[in-house]
Amino acid sequence: MSGAEVAVERQAAAIRSTPFRIWLILLRHHLRLIIPAGIIWIVGLALTASIVAGVWIDTFPTQEERIALALSVEGNPAFEAMFGKAVQLHTMEGFTMWRAGGPLFPAIVIWGMLAATRLARSDEDRGHDELLLGGMISRRALFISALAAPLILIAVYIALTIAALHAVSDIALSGSMRFAFGMAGGFTFFGALGALLVQLTPSRSVGLRIGLGIIGLALGIRILSVLEQMPEWLPWLTPFGWYSEIGTAEVGSTAPFFLFGVGTLALAVVATVLAQRREIHASLLLGESEASGPHPPYDSLWKHEVRQDLPGLIGFGAVGVLLAGIFGMVANDFVEFIADFPAFAAFLAEFGLADPTDPAAYVALTITMLVLVPTLYAAGLVAGIRDDEASGRLTVLLSLPLERHQWMLTRLLVGLAGIIVISLLVGFSAMLGTAITGTMLAPADALQAGLNLIPIAVLFAGLGVLIFGLYPPMTGPAVYTLLLATFLLVLLDAFLDIPSWIIALSPFEYQPMVPGEPANLTVSAVFLLVGLAGAIAGTVAFRRRDMMMD
Q1: How many CA atoms lie within 13 A of 44 on its CB side?
Q2: How remote is the C-alpha of 109 from its chain's centroid?
Q3: Hey, is 246 helix, strand or coil?
Q4: Residue 452 is inside which H or E element, if any?
């Protein structure tokens, strides 16, 4: 090859390697990281929304039944606490916004938080960002790519949701768009918040646990706003309240869309600025970098693990107290509604609610749904274990006089204590909530309800440790996806004729509604034994394999 040809080839290579082209390659890399789980989220959320819209047609076929539903539910604190503000339930658009958006909005904001925190911090915790920044890419471009990748997925979600709602119902295009863009607003807002939190915290795992706690507190404020004595402006303090105020095209507000957009942009700009100014592996708020781990002499392994776990414990504990307490306070309103609208009692029987006229049955239903609080805490515990290994913090820790199994046992026992505390807080907070309205839940029932949540959280913690021992890179994505998918499967069973063998795969199907029905000691024992076996097997596999920082 002549000198001229070499010069031309180098010039062509330089053109191919412009910063923008490199940024596009980086964007594809970020997309590959979140697409597998993203496909599950997109299909699941869009499918569930379309199913709920179809159920409205089948369950309330006449206009008289739809008007009766609207008169009974709209303004009822018990149902608005569970699903949000109800507006025009006699219309397809209003029912879909309320019944589908109620459970799906928390799910999509959790997805946004998981995706954004992973892209904004995981590569840095694992030491990959130094290699990327050693080339032509800047920190700002790297961070913008991490923010842009989730936006592509949420655009796909919007298009698929609008198409799915249009395919199964006669909901107007404007109604489908209000629903899809309202849900997307929650995704982008909490995604940007997660990207900001990981700039302020020592690692992705700490930022994520704080973020999940903030999501729970925001949901609690929205639920608190349905009580009659609360001011009308209270829902506007939280994005969950913004979504509830969207309403319908006929009776609704466009202000929430503005708040979602401005809030997302503001959080993203602040996060981008901080990402440029923060040192690699450093924290701007909660102490110094965790990358190096504790150095000898350190006080105690137990103290170290408790300090690391404390933010998640406080956050999830506060969420459990707030949600369970509010649900307990509106139990009487639920019973009064069922007395006036027995057709809905038959519908709730699909969820396993034995006696809807008993306030304890409503408390049992809500506490069973709140099993997500300790189980999400358990999932975060296991994901944090993987982050410790991937970032190198565990390598430094194990350079001390400390065996792997000793560290794992300490970490799991601290986590188990957290699961027990959070579960009991949920049970006794529900008791205090019912006491405020004069229908005191017995302390023994509150204790049983709290204890009933522990086994399934232990089960997911054990399964997570097993995944960590066998294939560590999939620990976080697998345990979160397994948890949310199996929970969503049970919810969909009330709307679809899903084959029983598929439903049987979900452990939530076997979760008894205590105190509305007796505790199932056999199921609890199986969950505990499987969780223990998974933790032991995962620990053994972890001891025998090499450390995997990638």
Answers
A1: 23
A2: 7
A3: coil
A4: helix 443-470
Give me the numbers of helices (H) and strands (E) for the chain, helices first please.
24, 0
Give the type of residue at 233: W
Provide DSSP, 174-215.
HHHHHHHHHHHHHHHHHHHHHHHHHHHSSSHHHHHHHHHHHH
CA gap 513, 78 in Å, rounded:
18
User: Is the distance from CB of 449 to CB of 515 less than 8 angstroms?
Assistant: yes
At residue 221's C-alpha, the angle toward residues 216 and 225, to 5°, is 145
CA distance 298 to 155: 48
Residue 371 CA to residue 315 CA, distance in Å, equals 15
Q: What is the 3-state secondary structure (H, E, C) of 20-37?
A: HHHHHHHHHHHHHHHHHH
What does the pLDDT read at residue 267? 94
Q: What is the mean pLDDT of residues 26-52?
A: 82
Task: Tell me the average pLDDT of the chain.
Answer: 78
How far is 457 from 455, CA to CA, in rounded Å?
5
Dihedral pair phi/psi, residue 247, rounded to 5° = 60, -140
Q: HEC states along 85-140?
A: CCCCCCCHHHHHHHHHHHHHHHHHHHHHHHHHHHHHHHHHHCCCHHHHHCCCCCHH
Nearest in space to 145 (alpha carbons), one of 109, 194, 195, 185 = 195
Separation of alpha carbons 238 and 241, rounded Å: 5
Cβ proximity of 365 and 357 under 8 Å: no
Q: Which of the 8 DSSP states describes residue 437?
A: T
What is the per-residue pLDDT across 8-23, written as a single tens digit (0 to 9) for each? 455 444 445 567 777 7
Whole-number Å distance between alpha carbons of 52 and 327: 23
Buried/exposed code over 317-354 (b: 16+ C-beta within 10 A; e: otherwise): bbbbbbbbbbbbbbbbbbbebbeebeebeebbeeebbe
470, burial (CB in 10 Å: exposed 0-12, middle 13-18, buried 19+):
middle
Q: Phi and psi at residue 104, in whole multiples of 5°?
A: -80, -30
Which tokens go with 281?
């592996």
Q: What is the pLDDT of residue 41?
A: 82
CA distance linking residue 92 with residue 517, whole number of Å: 34
Give 544's Cβ-side CA count (13 Å radius): 9
Whether 521 shows a pLDDT value over 80: the answer reads yes
Rounded to whole angstroms, how far apart are CA atoms 100 and 341? 20
- pLDDT tens, position by position, 293-343: 444 444 577 777 777 777 778 878 887 887 787 777 776 666 666 655 555
